From TrEMBL:
GO cellular component terms listed in the entry, alphabetical order: cytosol
Record domain Aldehyde dehydrogenase: where: 22-471
GO BP: any one term: gamma-aminobutyric acid catabolic process
Active site (record annotation): E249
Taxonomy, superkingdom: Bacteria
Protein name, UniProt field: Succinate-semialdehyde dehydrogenase (NADP(+))
Length: 477
């Protein structure tokens, strides 16, 4: 067995076809990588019942013991970084450099929450009566469920599983059907680290059946979902009957504002990183770039040069910076946005078409002359297409940036300190990058406002999503 096969040594992963299984393909080559067993609804209910027993035992362990096991999982992730990254590139398509970065990012959540496990502290409150002691303790919410996307096949799992396990919860993860192999590989390492199999289960199958079981089974006390706003609304609605705790990390429509006084090199570099990370397939990717009139032409020129230099190819090949898009629908969507924008007056500065590499490769594209009536101004592009809008005043830029129901991430580039504060506070978003296009890390609270979701992941706040407060009133009179 080679190192990657060892990572996939899970009973639900096969190299031979399964009658009711999922076929997992490499989006860069079309090759079949593996087959994955699907879980029926009765099987899932059984897994949930077993998780309940496992959770009680896990919660009874000391915080130190849980932390030590998470540390061990973290170390195994780091030791297996290269193979986890290769596996991710094979099933998701992103460049190996990005996959290596994602494994570090994913492992970072495990380390962070191993540390946080030891700081789930309660409170003693100042009592109204001398005979009463008022206390607050924090307890795990119980059995939890996660539904994770294909764009970050490792980090979106650890960002949910690590705080859940640190808090003393069980977690059942449903990864995206395009990228379940990274989820199984992480589970294999978690089991090696000492995390019980019933406590951290990975399941696959029909998304609607699994999601409905999560919302309908009363044992599941919390669901954490990363994905589209449409599905998030469905989960929110379906969770009402059992009043489940929810974390929803939904779609974005991130604006990036470049003012006349910005350091243009920095602004172009930040836009490149924010827009073309993962080939434009992240929720926090810049969707709309607004540039002040004085630097508009120069910014567009420099951005187009940089985007045109990005090297496309199989993410495993040396020097490749952009992999394929996840599937044919993603390509069709980007093409439709470009066609609509060109029809409404945009100019294509670079890219604009499918790559000669074929498959789902698409050329990194920059459009100038973008306007508010274009579809790409309202919808999340989720691809390597960067539209650039022109603005005159700060007030106009802020108004345009906020003209969306989404509220996940926003970015601005300016050297003026007063403007940095003023605009950052005026932007209606959960996260704002100032003079940077990369904001995600385990220390910071990730999450959005408005239609972009509920709750925060990572950071000192993230563990609270897996804890309940209990108030104790002790009368000693
Ligand atoms: C996402 O796109 O869902 C997550 C992006 C990130 O963690 O930076």
């Amino acid at each position: 067995m080679n190192a990657i096969e060892q990572l996939l040594n899970h009973p639900d992963v096969r190299t031979t076809p399964l009658s009711d299984g999922l076929k997992i393909r490499n989006p860069a080559t079309g090759d079949t990588l593996a087959y994955v067993r699907t879980t029926s609804v009765p099987q899932l209910n059984h897994i949930i019942a077993k998780a309940q027993t496992a959770q009680t035992e896990w919660a009874a362990k000391s915080a130190l013991e849980r932390a030590d096991i998470l540390w061990c999982w973290y170390r195994l992730m780091k030791e297996n970084k290269e193979n986890l990254a290769r596996l991710m590139t094979m099933e998701q398509g992103k460049s190996l450099a990005e996959s290596l970065g994602e494994i570090d990012y994913a492992a970072g959540f495990i380390r962070w929450f191993a540390e946080e496990a030891r700081r789930i502290d309660g409170d003693i409150l100042t009592s109204l009566k001398p005979t009463q002691k008022l206390m607050v303790i924090k307890q795990p919410v119980g059995v939890t469920a996660a539904i994770t996307p294909w764009n970050f096949p490792a980090a979106m799992i650890t960002r949910k599983a690590a705080p859940a396990l640190a808090a003393g919860c069980a977690i059942i993860v449903k990864p995206a059907s395009q990228t379940p192999l990274s989820a199984y590989a992480q589970a294999v390492l978690a089991y090696r680290a000492g995390i019980p199999q019933d406590l951290f289960a990975v399941v696959n199958g029909k998304a609607a059946d699994i999601s409905n079981t999560f919302t309908q089974n009363p044992i599941i006390r919390k669901i954490s979902f990363t994905g589209s706003t449409e599905v998030g609304i469905q989960i929110f609605r379906n969770s009402a009957e059992h009043i489940k705790k929810l974390s929803l990390e939904l779609g974005g429509n991130a604006p990036l504002l470049v003012f006349d006084d910005a350091d243009l090199d920095k602004a172009v570099e930040g836009t490149m990183l924010s827009k073309f990370r993962n080939s434009g397939q992240t929720c926090v990717c810049t969707n709309r770039v607004y540039v002040q009139a004085g630097v508009y032409n120069e910014f567009c020129r420099r951005l187009a040069v940089q985007a045109g230099r990005l090297k496309l190819g199989n993410g495993l090949d040396k020097g490749v910076q952009q992999g394929p898009l996840i599937d044919a629908d993603a390509v069709a969507k980007v093409e439709a946005y470009i066609a609509d924008a060109l029809e409404k007056g945009a100019q294509c500065l670079t890219g604009g078409r499918r790559s000669p590499l074929g498959g789902t490769f698409f050329e990194p594209t920059v459009l100038s002359g973008a306007t508010a009536d274009m579809l790409l101004a309202r919808e999340e592009i989720f691809g390597p297409l960067c539209p650039v809008f022109k603005f005159e005043s700060e007030a106009e830029a802020v108004a345009q940036a906020n003209r969306t129901e989404a509220g996940l991430a926003a970015y601005l580039f300016t050297r003026d300190t007063a403007r940095q504060w003023r605009v950052a506070e005026a932007l209606e978003y959960g996260m704002v990058g100032i003079n940077t296009g990369i904001i995600s890390n385990e220390v910071a609270p990730f999450g959005g406002i408005k239609m972009s979701g509920l709750g925060r992941e990572g950071s000192k706040y993230g563990i609270n999503e897996y804890l309940e407060l209990k108030y104790l009133c002790l009368d000693i009179g």
